[in-house]
Amino acid sequence: NRKREHKNIMKVDVIIPVYGPGNRLLELFDQLGHQTVPVDRLIVMNTEKSLWDKWAETLEPGRLPENLSVYHVTKEEFDHGATRNAGIEHSDADVCVCMTHDALPADTGLLKALMDALFSGDDIAVAYARQLPAKDCNIIERHTREFNYPHKSRIKRLSDLDTLGIKTYFCSNVCAAYKREIYMELGGFIRKTIFNEDMIFAAKAMKNGYAVCYAADARVIHSHNYTAVEQFHRNFDLAVSQADHPDVFSGIRSEGEGIRMVKDTVRWLVKTGHTYLVPKLVVDSGFKYMGYLAGKRYKKLPKALVVKLSMNRNYWK
Question: Around Cβ 293, how many Cβ atoms within 10 Å?
Fold first, then answer.
């Protein structure tokens, strides 16, 4: 019986892919150690063992948590889907929470809020957290976070495609909790993908009758101040993942949602006295769109050019 009250869950593991560990990872470990819902195991999937070993040697004895398990992959082996899937396969917990090492819980109730959302319905396979901007986040990105991660929670099902479009499948492994039993039943994350392993799984879950919950009360601090060129590379990879998975993304236009966000941001900038940032928004949005268009057509481009346009260049090796 998949239905369980979250108070009866015995184990919650957190899976964290890491490349280049540092103080922020230690801060994440510390904050996860103070959650009201305890973490059974911290499972780190580290890229390049030498980097981890060199860093670990600089730490005081006992600085790393006792419930930490570290597994290593090479740069060539790392994959957004396969590496996270390996981490979940190392777990035997009832719930596996995927996080990135640059995200931090906003409070001690992050995991409880995720569990409350995850077990608010029998058919919910995954619940993902709200992302709040960091202190150094630029003004435009702050509003983007608000646009993509609103105050109100929502349960999404396949029937929402007509109204939500591409947002129906939106889910983020920056911080997302999975019922491991359902995850394994559905075959887990796709093993080879440049991006969007979370959305691809969400689509698969919905097509199998499950739901995805956006848990606005589960909050993490996570944002980036990407340059226009970095936005190009990121959106190139995003579009590559869509082009590679027509079974998920075919017939669902992403451009409309992007245009809606730009218009909303322009209105917000003008309203809040930041009209001077509108040209920057236009330039950044242009780079995003160019990256997206190039990524959608990457199969027509020379391989050497594809590698240069991609943010995740090791994917192409």
Answer: 13
- Rounded Cα gap, residues 273 and 252, in angstroms: 35
Task: Using alpha carbons, select from 279, 48, 271, 249 the residue that is nearest to residue 165.
Answer: 249
- Residue 167's alpha-carbon distances to 38, 91, 126, 158, 249, in angstroms, are 31, 29, 15, 11, 11
Which pair of tokens denotes residue 271?
């309203």
- What is the helix (H) or strand (E) element at residue 178, kind and residue range? strand 175-179
Q: How confident is the model at residue 10, as a pLDDT? A: 74
Residues in the chain: 317
- Please, what's the b/e burial string for 243-264 (b: 16 or more CB within 10 A of its CB; e: otherwise)? bbbeebbeebebeebbeebbee
Q: Residue 169 CA to chain centroid, in angstroms?
A: 12
- What would the pLDDT profile of 138-174 be if each residue is shown by its tens digit? 999 999 999 999 999 999 999 999 889 889 999 999 9
Q: What is the pLDDT of residues 78-109, one digit of tens each?
A: 999 999 999 999 999 999 999 999 999 999 99
β-pairing verdict for 95-99 and 41-47 = unpaired
In Å, what is the CA distance from 149 to each residue of 212, 215, 299? 14, 9, 32
Q: Helix (H, G, I), strand (E, B), or coil: what is residue 112?
A: helix
Which residue matches tokens 């440049």?
A: 194
In the predicted model, is pLDDT for residue 268 greater than 70?
Answer: yes
- Separation between Cα atoms, residue 221 and residue 148, nearest integer Å: 14
Residues 6 or more apart from 54 whose CB is under 8 A from it?
A: none
Q: What is the mean pLDDT of the chain?
A: 93
On the 0-12 / 13-18 / 19+ scale of CB atoms within 10 A, 231 is buried
pLDDT at 6: 53
Sign of CA dihedral 178, 184, 187, 190: positive
